[in-house]
TrEMBL record:
<protein>
    <submittedName>
        <fullName>EAL domain-containing protein</fullName>
    </submittedName>
</protein>
<feature type="domain" description="EAL">
    <location>
        <begin position="24"/>
        <end position="278"/>
    </location>
</feature>
Length: 286
């Protein structure tokens, strides 16, 4: 890679950048093969009803089981998947996995009634995204009302009209839509009102220092009040402590997700959590 050092306008060859470029290219080649080599995994993180303490749903979170590098988190390969367009096939695969898995869990454990699946802006921008979702729902014979698609607030701010049209089509299919990482972007209330949204997920960065940080406490309370008054349900992300949980319960927040309850786990491990969930329910009602 060629770099201009600015001052005397000499161009020089930067070996470290070149190594990065090679690694980048190698990762791209490997990511292209990851799907067919069955190296991608969908993990599931429990979503908890704060009134009952029971698991009521899950968020699907993708990982890459790399042959030499181990389990790679999505933050390390989703951006590359988006740049290369690979997110279209990877995203559709994750959607298919999560929907068919959730359909099975919902039938085994009716209290499990929501699967949240992250969707990239690149997928939304593809003209026929709603058709893809429709196809996945039909193939797995899944009740659309258990499916929730998560789109980050920053994605919403980028592409307006096409997003509105696609969301309307998705709503007609009967799936629900959540705004992920809410509070980290700068979307206006008028903008939100134009979209057929169901849920707001309060970003972990606001939850992290609750309840002591007065600013974060104020922001969380304000987001909660605004969201409920606009008719959205609210999920708090990244709940790690009982103090955070208590603050959210006092606020009236219905649903939470975080390491306090469960880490993202494999499908097999999640089914075990659901079975424990049932035993807990039996005990509580006894
Ligand atoms: P996200 O959708 O906001 O997911 C929440 C992230 O916070 C997950 O990280 C989760 O493991 C982590 N988390 C959950 N509870 C806690 C907690 O109590 N404390 C802390 N410190 N972290 C917590 P993960 O799995 O690394 O995913 C990162 C991001 O990658 C996700 O953020 C999402 O934007 C993206 N992603 C994951 N799967 C997919 C996918 O299938 N498609 C697309 N497009 N993006 C995905
Ligand atoms: Mg999410
Ligand atoms: Mg989030
Ligand atoms: Mg995030």
């Amino acid at each position: 890679q060629v770099k201009n050092n600015g001052k005397n306008h000499h161009l020089f060859y930067d070996a470290s950048l070149s190594r990065d470029a090679v690694e980048h290219f190698q990762m791209e080649t490997e990511l292209r093969q990851a799907l067919s080599r069955q190296q991608l995994r969908v993990f599931y993180q429990a979503q908890i009803d704060l009134n009952t303490g029971l698991i009521v749903g899950a968020e699907a979170l993708i990982r890459w089981q790399h042959p030499t590098q181990g389990l790679i988190p999505p933050g390390k390969f989703i951006p590359l998947a988006e740049e290369t367009g690979l997110i279209l096939s990877i995203g559709e695969w994750a959607l298919t996995q999560a929907v068919s898995q959730a359909n099975e869990w919902h039938h085994l454990h009716p209290e499990f009634k929501k699967i949240a699946i992250n969707v990239s802006g690149v997928q939304i921008m593809k003209s026929q995204f709603a058709d893809t979702v429709y196809g996945v729902l039909v193939d797995s014979n899944c009740d659309p009302s258990i499916v929730e698609l998560e789109i980050t607030e920053s994605t919403l701010m980028q592409h307006t009209q096409h997003v509105v049209n696609t969301f309307n089509q998705l709503k007609q299919l009967g799936v629900s839509i959540a705004i992920d990482d809410f509070g980290t972007g700068y979307s206006s209330l008028s903008h939100l009102k134009r979209l057929p949204l169901d849920q707001i997920k309060i970003d972990r960065s606001f939850v992290k220092d609750l309840p002591d940080d007065k600013d974060d406490a104020a922001i969380t309370s304000a987001i909660y009040a605004m969201a409920t008054q606009l008719g959205f349900t609210v999920v708090a992300e990244g709940v790690e402590t009982e103090e955070q949980e208590k603050f959210l319960q006092r606020l009236g927040c219905q649903t939470a997700q975080g390491y306090l309850y469960a880490y993202p786990v494999s499908a097999d491990a999640f089914l075990q959590l659901l079975e424990l969930n049932n035993q807990r329910k039996i005990k509580r009602h006894a």
